[in-house]
Specification:
807 residues, alpha+beta, elongated, five-stranded parallel β-sheet, 22 helices, six-stranded antiparallel β-sheet, single chain
Length: 807
């Protein structure tokens, strides 16, 4: 029976009997603790004052006999073990005692053995009492659990009829157990869910001991549909249950939350289409109204100057209950404004279940429940109710989820807005870049840069400075209109001053200050200028940008400012280069003019005497014949050739006439007809058609052919008879002209193209110089090397060409 103590109350009006009985009982069983009472009244008082496991009572006692004492005990303690232990009893007394509820009846006898019997009877009675008490406690506990359970416990037969419903059915389903017992369970299941539920039930019936679970809508007693999660076990073979045990839980709230979450996710997808922060807030407030059923809600977004949280989207109920939604100013020290700003700046949600419990808010607002959800750097989402404790944990999670979603949407809108603005500014800067590249003066470039800085980049304070080489100072040449109003006339800076502008120019890197008040040597310490950025424009100078607010320049601003600076540098370099080209062209024009004058003088002053000399020679031939006159004639011819070469070189144009397709073979054959070739031979092995100035190419070819005839005739190592052979052929990207004459020494090949160079006595030294000029005017490369048969080979490459058509 265990080792726990057994407390016994022995009631007998004979003190000697109670004492000896107590002593022997405690000897018989060490678990016994025996206390005594002299009569029934004292016994009842002892039972009220203490707890006992068993009462042993005499029958024949003064005042209240044993049966009357038993009746009194049973009235108060119906199940407490009670043994009538008497020496004067009878069968009639024993019978009456049993009828009145005595646990046992023992007749007193002589000797001590009777105490062993009594001890045994006490132990048995107490053991039975305790076991019954434990069973009853367990039964009561399980019954209470069933009655108080939020789950409905059901038993249905294999046909699906209700056999038992726990008391929770009335709370959960709004039916009493009696109302549903015997009904067909699936008559209560929603039509759309019946097939699934019945299929699961059929599977369970066919699987002894098996388990199944299913969710379905159940029609409650009030006519509403409630979602149940049913978990069943097949106990049809259990001899006690003989049915399908189903634990049904009301999951309506959970399913509603799931539906709410699903709809919330679907509706928040609308946020993707929003293109502005205000539109995002409007879409979000519609979601609050339609999905979350929070009547007092609004979104407050941070103003551009970051000093106010302004209402941009609120539900109509807010105005109906509270009036126009407030703007929360950073400088406002009111309790509501302070708590909203604290939540925004801390970045943590604030939940107030009972506003009236917060002293500073109790009289500041009529709402009684308030929640504030920060939206990052964008603003706050505020939800409230007129009743306290209006939002449970699930409500808060949904509101917090929406807040996080709206914040992400606002982040996206801001990123896209920044990107659109950046692209817009880039496009406008690109247009400005084209304008700068078309500017005709440095002053125009400076003015356009200042205008672009204010209109495109949004920098109200801009100063363009150019480096003056004479004074070695950065001199202001253009500013935005705001510069004069805010800062006054701008100074020039040089190396002798401590200046951030000069430092940036020398270093060649941008300098950025979030707040010029923190700069020791700022140029404008007592002006509205706060944010300041200096961008060098190469060797040309600097462009300075500024605003009146600290921390104005983000990475995008810096990128665009540097881009404008680079474009300005390129425009100034382009203008400088073009001005240098104009200077060089003007100088070249002057040189050409002088050269033309020289050519005219040469033609007039040399040709006239030569013509007179040639005329006199003809007269002299008529008078007499002399070999000396032949020498004079050859000298006149040489002088004529020299005059032609000098005129050709002097009047050679650096610009070509219109290019045309020239058949190189045809042109070469024509040139050969104009050259005094003697016994020389020409081989034309080309079918090339080149894009060239026909006249200039003809000049090039005639000089080459004439050069080969003059320098190769009579000395050809390959012909054996002194005749020279000239070949014109194709290269991969051009053509060549070669002969089989003596060739040109390698150490003289660079010099042959110089004006005045000649390897023969009496040569002008201009022919090959003209060849090079013509080739370079066409953009060709000319080189000289050894010919195939040891002579000289001139190669021309880098030309547009095509094969000549046959026929």
């Amino acid at each position: 029976m265990g080792t726990s103590e057994i407390r016994v109350l022995h009631v007998d009006d004979e003190g000697s009997i109670t004492e000896i009985t107590a002593e022997f009982l405690e000897r018989e069983n060490e678990r016994f603790t025996v206390e005594t009472a002299p009569n029934g009244a004292d016994g009842l008082e002892a039972l009220e004052a203490n707890e006992y496991d068993c009462v042993v009572s005499d029958y024949d006692m003064a005042g209240m006999d044993g049966i009357e004492f038993l009746e009194a005990v049973r009235e108060r303690y119906p199940n407490l073990p009670f043994i009538l232990y008497t020496g004067k009893g009878s069968e009639e007394v024993a019978s009456e005692a049993i009828v009145e509820g005595a646990s046992d009846y023992i007749q007193k006898k002589g000797g001590t053995s009777q105490y062993a019997v009594l001890a045994n009877r006490i132990e048995n009675a107490v053991g039975k009492y305790r076991a019954e008490r434990d069973v009853e406690a367990t039964r009561t506990r399980y019954q209470r659990l069933i009655e108080e359970s939020t789950d409905v416990i059901l038993v249905v037969d294999d046909a699906g009829n209700f056999e038992y419903l726990s008391p929770a059915a009335e709370r959960v389903l709004d039916y009493s157990s009696d109302e549903m017992t015997g009904d067909y369970a699936f008559d209560y299941v929603h039509e759309a869910d019946q097939d699934e539920a019945m299929a699961r039930f059929s599977d369970l019936v066919r699987a002894p001991g098996g388990h199944e679970s299913v969710e379905f809508r159940f029609k409650a007693g009030d006519g509403s549909w409630r979602w149940l999660e049913a978990r069943g076990r097949n106990l049809l073979d259990d001899p006690i249950i003989e049915g399908i045990v189903v634990y049904a839980r009301d999951i309506t709230s959970r399913r509603e939350r799931e539906e709410t979450l699903k709809e919330l996710i679907q509706r928040t997808g609308d946020l993707i289409d929003a293109t502005s922060k205000a539109e995002t807030a409007e879409v979000a407030i519609d979601v609050v109204s339609d999905v979350l059923d929070a009547p007092l809600a609004g979104f407050h977004l941070l103003s551009d100057d970051r000093q106010r949280l302004e209402p941009v989207a609120t539900l109509d109920e807010v105005r109906a209950e509270l009036g126009d939604p407030p703007t929360y100013d950073r400088s406002d020290e009111s309790p509501t404004s302070a708590i909203v700003w604290d939540a925004f700046e801390d970045g943590e949600p604030v939940h107030i279940d009972r506003v009236e419990s917060v002293d500073e808010l109790a009289d500041a607002t009529p709402v009684r429940t308030g929640c504030i959800y920060p939206l990052g750097d964008h603003g706050v989402f505020i939800v409230s109710e007129m009743e306290p404790n209006a939002f449970d944990e699930v409500d808060r999670k949904f509101l917090e989820l929406l807040g996080r979603t709206v914040r992400a949407a606002l982040d996206r809108v801001e990123r896209e807005s920044v990107l659109r603005e950046r692209n817009r500014r880039l496009e406008r800067l690109h247009e400005t870049g084209r304008e700068l590249m078309q500017a005709n003066s440095t002053e125009e470039i400076a003015e356009r840069v200042a205008a672009a800085s204010g209109a495109i980049l949004g920098f109200p304070i801009t100063v363009v400075r150019y480096h003056d080489e004479e004074t070695n100072r950065l001199v202001p040449v253009a500013t935005t209109d705001e510069v004069t109003d805010l800062l006054g006339p701008r100074p020039a800076f040089g190396p002798e001053e401590t200046s951030t502008t000069w430092e940036a120019y020398q270093e060649g890197s941008p300098v950025i200050y979030d707040d010029v008040d923190d700069v020791d040597h700022a140029a404008d310490p007592e002006t509205p200028l706060r944010s300041f950025m200096i961008v060098p424009i190469g060797e040309h100078g600097t462009v300075s940008f500024g605003t009146t607010a600290p921390g104005s320049f983000d990475d995008n601003d810096v990128f665009l400012a540097r881009l404008l600076g680079t474009t300005t540098e390129l425009a100034l370099s382009r203008l400088k280069h073009e001005q240098e080209l104009v200077r060089q062209r003007d100088e070249l024009d002057r040189q050409n003019e002088r050269l033309d004058q020289f050519a005219s003088t040469l033609s007039h002053d040399l040709r006239n005497p030569l013509n007179v000399a040639m005329g006199q020679l003809d007269l002299a031939r008529g008078e007499r014949d002399s070999e000396h006159l032949d020498a004079v004639a050859r000298a006149h011819e040489r002088m004529e050739s020299l005059i032609e070469d000098v005129l050709s070189l002097a009047r050679a144009e650096t610009e070509l006439a219109e290019l045309e397709s020239v058949d190189l073979a045809v042109l070469t054959e024509g040139c050969w007809q104009t050259v005094e070739s003697g016994s020389a031979e020409l081989r034309v092995e080309t079918d090339l058609v080149v894009r060239a100035d026909d006249a200039r190419l003809r000049q090039l070819m005639e000089n080459l052919l004439r050069n080969s005839v003059e320098h190769g005739a009579g000395s050809s190592p390959s012909s054996g008879d002194g005749e020279v052979t000239i070949t014109v052929g194709d290269l991969e990207d051009g053509f060549y002209v070669e002969d089989d004459g003596p060739g040109i020494p390698a150490d003289e090949r660079e010099a042959i193209f110089e004006s005045g160079y000649s390897s023969t006595t009496g040569g002008s030294g201009l022919g090959l110089n003209i060849v090079k000029q013509v080739a370079e005017a066409h953009g060709w490369e000319v080189t000289v090397t050894d010919g195939t048969d040891g002579g000289a080979r001139f190669e021309f490459r880098g030309m547009e060409s095509q094969q000549a058509s046959a026929g």
